[in-house]
Write a structure and sequence with these properties.
By secondary structure, the chain is α/β, with parallel strands linked by helices. It is 51% helix and 14% strand. Helix 2 runs antiparallel to helix 3. The radius of gyration is 21 Å and the shape is globular.
């Protein structure tokens, strides 16, 4: 699948050959000018990602994967990691993060359920990191493994009142229902209207279009609360207050099970700027920040293990490439290009260990 490219051409943001990038006759000087300007103001990672995504012809899959995932020369790498400097990053991210959270979530998830079906696993439609036990396993196997891990941490029983924060297409709620047979005590929150419609018609479980960050929770009302791939959307300044609300919403002895990825090193790496192209209005926090906030809220951290997101991203990418025509028919070239770029950009992010997926259990004593 991989095809080697000339290093200087493939890996150098400053030397990206705009004239060789896919373009149509309407491709204009304006697009090139904007790319140069964006490089100066937002840095090379953002401007190149934006330039490539805005191509009016489908990006070449092999070139795209190679472009984003191969090692860069040291100078390019230095520029990519350090420009713009931190005080500029803060200024750029400020207005992006001030925008309405729901709008950013809807812009990512309310594209087309049929489009997501093209690359997510067939059995569950999980849009979060799977657990691969070997290279031979399929995405379906690995998502089943992940569901088993979450079930083991959650230990759901009939009669337990359980809430899923950011329930996606209802995958984990369905797994819990299969174990407990107790539909009435399960509830999921999402901000995506399309996910809500899907769960109502295809899964038949209780789900509500509710913002889990701002909603008021009834005190001591849940035995278990969990989230998979949703804490990534909670901005640093909202984490402590959310954890305090969840602590209060749990019954004594209750637990919060979370799977999410968080930053391992820097608080505001340059990669957070292109991240706004995919998740406008979301910003990651460091893992130590999450742990500290959990303890401040009163939780006891009883489990914290990491997982590798890269095989899941690669599997989604391959599924998308294999369904290129259908994807373009459903969502158009630009959204196809966006996801074709999103998966390798994220793959590199994990390869460089800028972030790591964690599974946590937080207990209310
Ligand atoms: C990456 S998806 C993960 C979905 C699902 N948990 C899974 O593992 O497949 C993130 C989910 O979080 C939801 N979400 C993000 N922020 C939210 C918020 N503030 N309130 C409710 N749902 C939110 C999105 O609508 C989406 O369903």
């Amino acid at each position: 699948m991989h095809q080697s490219l000339d290093q200087s051409q493939a890996n150098s943001p400053s030397s990206i050959n705009v004239s060789k990038a896919p373009h149509s006759s309407t491709h204009s000087l304006v697009r090139r000018f904007r790319t140069v300007l964006n490089t100066l103001t937002h840095g090379p990672l953002y401007s190149i990602a934006r330039h490539r995504i805005s191509s009016e012809v489908p990006l070449d899959p092999v070139e795209t994967w190679t472009f984003w995932t191969e090692r860069r020369n040291p100078i390019t790498e230095f520029v990519a990691r350090n420009y713009p400097p931190d005080f500029v990053r803060r200024r750029i991210l400020g207005p992006m993060l001030a925008q309405n959270h729901s709008v950013g979530i809807e812009s990512h998830y309310d594209i087309s359920n049929a489009f997501y079906k093209l690359f997510l696993d067939k059995e569950f439609m999980f849009y979060s990191c799977a657990h691969f036990l070997s290279e031979r396993e399929t995405l379906e196997d690995a998502q089943r493994n992940k569901a088993q891990l979450i079930l083991a941490l959650l230990n759901p029983k009939a009669g337990d009142k359980i809430l899923d924060l950011g329930c996606g297409w209802g995958s984990m709620l369905k797994c819990i229902y299969e174990v407990t047979g107790d539909r009435n005590n399960l509830l999921g929150y999402t901000l995506s209207k399309q996910q809500l419609a899907y769960i109502k018609s295809e899964v038949g479980l209780n789900v509500s279009l509710t913002n889990f960050i701002t909603v008021a929770y009834e005190e001591a009302s849940y035995d278990k609360i969990f989230s998979i791939g949703a804490m990534e959307h909670v901005r640093p300044n909202e984490i402590l207050s959310l954890l305090q609300k969840l602590y209060s919403a749990l019954k004594p002895g209750g637990k919060l099970v979370q799977q999410f990825f968080s930053l391992e090193k820097e608080k505001r790496p340059t990669s957070m700027i292109p991240g706004q192209l995919f998740f406008p209005g979301s910003l990651l926090s460091t893992h130590s920040f999450h742990l500290h906030a959990a303890e401040q809220a009163g939780f006891k951290i009883t489990h914290d293990l990491v997982d590798d997101y890269k095989p899941t991203l690669r599997a989604w990418y391959e599924n998308l490439v294999n369904n290129k025509e259908k994807a373009i028919d459903l969502v158009g070239v630009r959204i196809y290009n966006k996801y074709l770029s999103f998966f390798p950009i994220s793959w590199r992010f994990f390869k460089e260990e800028e972030a790591q997926v964690h599974r946590l259990v937080l207990e209310k004593p």
